[in-house]
Amino acid sequence: MYLVRKRKLGRSETLDLFALESGRVYTMAKVWFWRIVRRKGIWLSEGTLQRLLANGQPTLLHSQSAQKSIQCFFEALRTWRRARTRNPDLRPPRKRKKFSKIIWKDQAIKVREGRLVLPNTRGTAPVIIDDWLSAKPVQVELGWDGKQYELRASYKTEPRETSQGFVASVDLGEVHSAVMGTDDVHVILNGRLLRSKRRYRERLKAKLSAKIDRKQKGGKRREKLITSKRRQLKKLDNQIRDIEHKLTTAGIKALHEAGVRKLVFGDLRDVRVGYDKGRGQNQRMHQAPLGRIRSYLVYKGLRLGWQESDFQDEAYSGKDCPRCGQHNNPKGRNYSCASCGFKAHRDVVGQVNILHKYRGVRSSHVIGAMASPIGIRWTPHLRCSSKLVGADHAVSLSRIPRL
Ligand SMILES: [Zn+2]
Question: How far apart are CA 200 and CA 196, in angstroms?
């Protein structure tokens, strides 16, 4: 698996030059590709076009970087082909690019005396990044983050040896981003702040779009508003990502300490009675905000040497009693069984039921009283280390009082 380190580089004319050059190579590939389609009716393969263009004009970029820029065009073409099956109106990539990202590959990259050296073609000075304390990356990408240049260095990390341990189930949701745990340990990632940020984002988007629509097309005020909208939404996106990262890191850490080495996700994709409105709609309703949380949890677990995660159909998991199997309709935050008197935190019931289903038991008589869950809530003005250590500084862990 890969890890990416980012570094902001500001703006400079030298970097502009290389981004322009990469954009030129991309555009050249695009132009020639469509020209040959038009004239000969042939869709060239990536390899053929690479060979054709290799003898063309010289470029400032390292030969492999130039190849990568051409690859970017074919990547866009592949994305279009995949998406076309779902949306036939989608148009293929035809836009010229003035600027484009530059990619350096493994063999080209060098680290010397604490500096990262990114070579260009012979006779052109390399891009040098000072104070490079990390190891040599396997790939480096120089892109634009909307304001300035950003260096993205990829590292291949050997996942730690997969180890056996407890399986934890995960119930993803809106109010709580995730409820996860075993029979004894339950961790709740509080998602209220996330939800309010997401809602605010949608409101802001609607408000600004309406404002933009009232302005004259091509006008200066309209341009200004569009830039402002982009900036404001980007800021909110960054806040949302930050909260999601800190919550999931703290959650995984808590589970790791409890001996968990595998996750099982309640699968929202199959059955949801009353919510079945076709595959697309179901996915939008259930997965859109949840997919990212899930992917964060998965890779953060793998990074600690956990096993590959699994899915478990979770129909009715919020309603069945985990002790006797009775079907109840809980109201409010608390779950209580009409048949056996079992009481628990409502959100934890779904999580425990997913675990039971995964093990192939409908209910478990061993469950007496459930342990009170650990709540993880994001608090502002606190920093989070990129490593798992130190994650508690970013979030507050609190014991939710026992029922
Ligand atoms: Zn019961």
Answer: 6
